Structure formats: structure tokens, C-alpha cells
Amino acid sequence: MRTIVITGGTDGIGRALALRRLRGGDRVVALGSGPVKGERFLEEARRLGAGDRAVFRRADLASAAVSRAVAAELAQAYPVVDALVLGAYRHHPDRVETAEGFERTFALYVLSRHLLAEGLRGSLERADSPVVLSLCGVGTRAGRIDWDDLQQARGSYRSLRATMQGARANDLLGVSFAERHAGGRTRYVLYNPGFVATGMAEPLRQPARGLVRAMARLFARSADETARQVAEVLDHPPAAPLSGFFRGGPVDLGRPGFDREAAARLHGALQDMLGETVRSDRPGGGGAGRREDRTD
Ligand SMILES: NC(=O)c1ccc[n+]([C@@H]2O[C@H](COP(=O)([O-])OP(=O)(O)OC[C@H]3O[C@@H](n4cnc5c(N)ncnc54)[C@H](OP(=O)(O)O)[C@@H]3O)[C@@H](O)[C@H]2O)c1
């Protein structure tokens, strides 16, 4: 029985994939921040007769401390993990700082993915054909990394810019993982599912939310169909240490966006952020925006 850990496994693409893998006989550990979606996932698992192979772990992965702790806890509970699917994501229309002082989109989309992939690497390395699969924006050129202000602490916050920067950073997380763990067995797959009909647009403000919903009815693929394609990659991970897919087709990773120096630079910046105590003068951190007082 394979063990698949899916962040964001309680909704959208992650949930469709989780249920698909349960139907296929795997054990699935789904992570999400909300108990209602988690309970619904467990209920669906029981209906499939897979209740004993379904685990829900509630965790707000926008917290670096929680991401680190959950990775350690799962590594202890599951000495062998066959696949880690990184799918947790939420659009934040306003700039919100976590209690740790990180901008929330960056914390969830970038820091948490880094921490989970690193924290579960030991368990992944023990599997027959281990893979980290990041659901992301690979294959599009939009977005850039603002090296001087990674967390949009200066000037006005733009949610789309934060998301697209996260997408480019996710590309670099893959490059960095493959570089730093060259010789390891774990493959890293960047997977852009294209436009998929999920609840992802719900946090958007009107009229954007209505527009995306209408477009989804016309143009988006279903989460089930996407999960089928993603599952194929999990079942047959490419041999290359790093690979990219857009809607199931290969993405050329020879482009400038996958630059090793940029990946090393991002890794250094993440190390910096994660290694420091919360200070208002931290590079790229602190600044304007709403601050949360709890992150668990
Ligand atoms: N849908 C698309 O068109 C599309 C296109 C390109 C890429 N993608 C990528 O595919 C992935 C999945 O997207 P989706 O459309 O399936 O999203 P979705 O339907 O909105 O589901 C998001 C999942 O993430 C979880 N989540 C959100 N915030 C979290 C937090 N702080 N901590 C832990 N879990 C959290 C949610 O559970 P809770 O709400 O309970 O926390 C939910 O399970 C994302 O990475 C997205 O960037 C999607």
C-alpha cells in the first residue's frame, strides 16, 4: 500500500486526487486548514470503504512553525512516503501577515512547500519511486520575483502579483530541490493543471469572482479529469530529477525562469527568513498590512 500526502487534499484538485488514490488502494493523508472540509473528506472515504486508509490532519500551513511540525510528525508516523502532493493554496485579496510576520500568500505558497518537501524527504527517499508533485503555475511566463521585496511589504499590495511571484518561486523551489539533492531518488514534478473548475475563485472580490465562475463553466476542466492526469504522473514519475507539465504535456525547463543561480538565491532568502526571529527590519518582511494574531 502506497502512502500519499496531499496538502490541500480536502478540496478541489487535491480532494479529487485523494479520493482517486483511495479508490486505487493507497493510504492518503490529506492536509487542510478547515475541519468541515476535513470531515467531509473522511466521510467520503468511509463511503468508499476506505475509512481505515484515510487520514485528515488539520493544519494552517501558512504558519512556518506548523508546516515544520506537521512535516516532522508525518515523517515519524510514516517512515515511507511514496508521494507528496503540494496543492494547498488560497488567494488573499488583501495583504495579511501571519503571526510569524510573513505575508500570507508567500508563507503558504512558497515557505510551506519548501518546509514540507524538505521535512518529508527522508520518508520519500525510502519509497520505491518517490515523487514530490507541486501543483503550480509552471509553463506560464507571467510573474516575476521581486528580490528586494519578496513579501510586498513596501508600496501597495497586489494579490495577483503575489500569486504570480509565488508561481515563479515554485518553479525555483523545484530547481533548488533537484540541485541540492542531486543523487537522491526523489523526483520533483512541477505540474500546472491549467484552468480547473474548483472553489479557488471564491476568495476573489466581485466582479472578478463572478467572471471567473462564468469562465469556469465554459472553459475549465473538471477536478476529476485533472486528478486522473496527475495520478498518471504519480504512477509513472519521469526519470529526470526535475520535470514540468502543463495539462499533462511536457514543459521546457531550459528557459531562464529555471535558472540555478536564481534558485540558489531564493533558497538563501528562505533560509534567512526561516532562521531569523520575527523582526520588523527583516529583509523582505514586515511592513504594511493586517497582522494575524494566531496561526494554528
Ligand atoms: N484551479 C485552477 O484553475 C488552478 C490552476 C493552476 C494551478 N492550480 C493549483 O492547484 C492547486 C490546487 O488548486 P485548487 O483549485 O484545487 O484549490 P482549492 O479548490 O481552492 O483547494 C485548496 C485547498 O487548499 C487548502 N488550503 C487553503 N489554505 C490552506 C492553509 N492555510 N493551510 C492548509 N490548507 C489550506 C484548502 O482547504 P481549507 O480551505 O480547509 O484550508 C483546500 O483543501 C493550487 O496550488 C493551485 O495554485 C489551480
What does this structure look like?
The chain is 42% helix and 16% strand. It has a single domain (3-277), classed as Rossmann fold (3-Layer(aba) Sandwich). Residues 276-288 have low confidence and may be disordered. It is α/β, with parallel strands linked by helices and 296 residues long. The strands form 3 sheets. Strands 3-2-1-4-6-7-10-11 form an 8-stranded mixed sheet, with helices on both faces. NADP nicotinamide-adenine-dinucleotide phosphate (NAP) binds at residues 8, 10-14, 31-34, 37, 59-62, 87-90, 108, 135-137, 192-193, 195-196, 198-200. NADP nicotinamide-adenine-dinucleotide phosphate binds at residues 8, 10-14, 31-34, 37, 59-62, 87-90, 108, 135-137, 192-193, 195-196, 198-200. GO terms for molecular function: oxidoreductase activity. Keywords: Oxidoreductase. InterPro entries: NAD(P)-bd_dom_sf, SDR_fam, Sec_Metab_Biosynth_Oxidored. Residues 274-296 are annotated as: Disordered. This is Short-chain dehydrogenase.
Overall domain count: 1
N-to-C terminal Cα separation, in Å?
31 Å
Number of helices: 9
Spatial extent as radius of gyration: 18 Å
Mean pLDDT: 91
User: CATH superfamily, called what?
Assistant: NAD(P)-binding Rossmann-like Domain
Strand count: 12
Largest sheet: 8 strands, mixed
CATH class value? Alpha Beta
The main sheet orders its strands as 3-2-1-4-6-7-10-11
Which word captures the global form? globular
Low-confidence stretches: 276-288
Structural class, from secondary structure content?
Answer: alpha/beta
Order of H and E elements: EHEHEHEEHHEHEEHEHEEHE
Under the CATH scheme, the architecture is 3-Layer(aba) Sandwich
List all distinct small molecules, including ions and cofactors, that are bound in this structure.
Answer: NADP nicotinamide-adenine-dinucleotide phosphate
